Fold this protein.
Amino acid sequence: MFDKILLAVDGSDHALRAAKQAAELARSIKPSEIHVVVAYEPIPIYLGEPNMQIAITSRKGDAEKILETAITEVGEVPCNIHSGILEGNPAEAILEVANTSQCDLIVMGSRGLGRLAGLLLGSTSQKVVAHAPCPVLIVR
Ligand SMILES: Nc1ncnc2c1ncn2[C@@H]1O[C@H](COP(=O)(O)OP(=O)(O)OP(=O)(O)O)[C@@H](O)[C@H]1O
Ligand SMILES: [Mg+2]
């Protein structure tokens, strides 16, 4: 049923809880794959070179650390784990991967690194829930 699980992470505690839930789910339903992704916003072109390359390298480095931490949180699962760094608006990037790689389930946190306290759902989760091509598991 949920053969390909897309786990979206941003380095927040909520996303780590989502990673834990995705792993528990995978241990019980044994999907073929968990695809862990993190997106970073495009670097504005007006920065010019070499600043643009420096900014891209730094964001990719941050993204790699976020993925590593999330994969550690997932731990042992009876399926393949793939990871990917996406460039673009996070919700749009998550939706594009969900569509192109035909994911059966998206797992993500209800909130992320945003600072607006009191929001029940962050803007990334809201947009993904509204447009996802498959079920979405929102983890609190
Ligand atoms: N850049 C990202 N890459 C991958 N997943 C993300 C990214 N940003 C958020 N997510 C996923 O979406 C979940 C909810 O984050 P969201 O951005 O919606 O909330 P927020 O940061 O609190 O609010 P906002 O971004 O609207 O200020 C996160 O727990 C994570 O699972
Ligand atoms: Mg956010």
